[in-house]
Amino acid sequence: MRKLFILLLVVSAFLTANISCGPKGHENGAVETQLASPASPEDVMYVCPMHPDVQSDKPGECPKCGMTLKSAASGTHDHSTHKH
Length: 84
Hints:
Elements: H1 2-21, E1 46-47, E2 55-56, E3 70-71, H2 72-75
Antiparallel strand pairs: 1-2, 1-3
């Protein structure tokens, strides 16, 4: 009986370690790293941080609030992999 208890303890420890420290993939919510090619200057869009509907192909200020438009390439990321 004691050997069975020790065997179950070892197996359960192994399975717990394997599940929590195992390889990560999409099924575990891991994020893929993708290298993006640098955007050419004519591909860059500028967006107001407070009004995403305000977009421009050149830097400037938002006509609604006066905030500086931010480069969409530097401030955007994929939210599909986030867990909120």
